User: What shape does this take?
Amino acid sequence: EKIHTPFDAIGEETLNRLVDAFYRRVGNDPLLAPIFPDDLTETARKQKQFLTQYLGGPALYTSEHGHPMLRARHIPFEITETRAKAWLACMNDAMDEVGLEGPLRKDFFSRLVLTAQHMINTPENQS
Ligand code: HEM
Assistant: This one.
């Protein structure tokens, strides 16, 4: 009996297109671009690995990079509530672009909202 995960439902191809659409927006976002590398190729590759496992697919991120420890890995960057909102807006627009819809999108996005909130590490007036 096959166990269906959100990863199975979205599919690798759509997930890859989503991540590419997302980082295209991040690279053009005036609040986000300054804290990201100019070349987002490697960032996108890691994010594809991470989101694959986040959605119940194979643990690609962990097998290459170890435990995600996402909050710790974000400490070097000043993440304000405004930046978290900008990150989520880029993701929302990327989901529109790739045509991700319905409960799958809603559940995925809700989890990202919680994870993004958890990454906030800097008060608004410090960035
Ligand atoms: C890496 C910013 C939220 C997953 C990064 C990097 C930055 C960043 C600047 C480093 C990029 C690089 O050097 O390649 C932000 C901001 C967020 C946010 C401003 C707003 C809240 C999230 C969320 C997730 C996530 C919600 C997961 C759902 C990752 C992953 C990496 C990463 C997997 C790669 C870590 C590694 O180097 O192995 N993020 N991030 N981020 N972020 Fe975020």
Q: What stands out?
A: The longest helix spans residues 81-98. Residues 32, 35-37, 42-43, 46-47, 50, 65, 70, 73-74, 77, 79, 83-84, 87, 112, 115-116, 119 surround protoporphyrin IX containing FE (CB under 6 Å). Residues 55 and 108 are 8 Å apart (CA to CA). Residues 6-126 form a domain with the Globin-like fold (CATH 1.10.490.10).
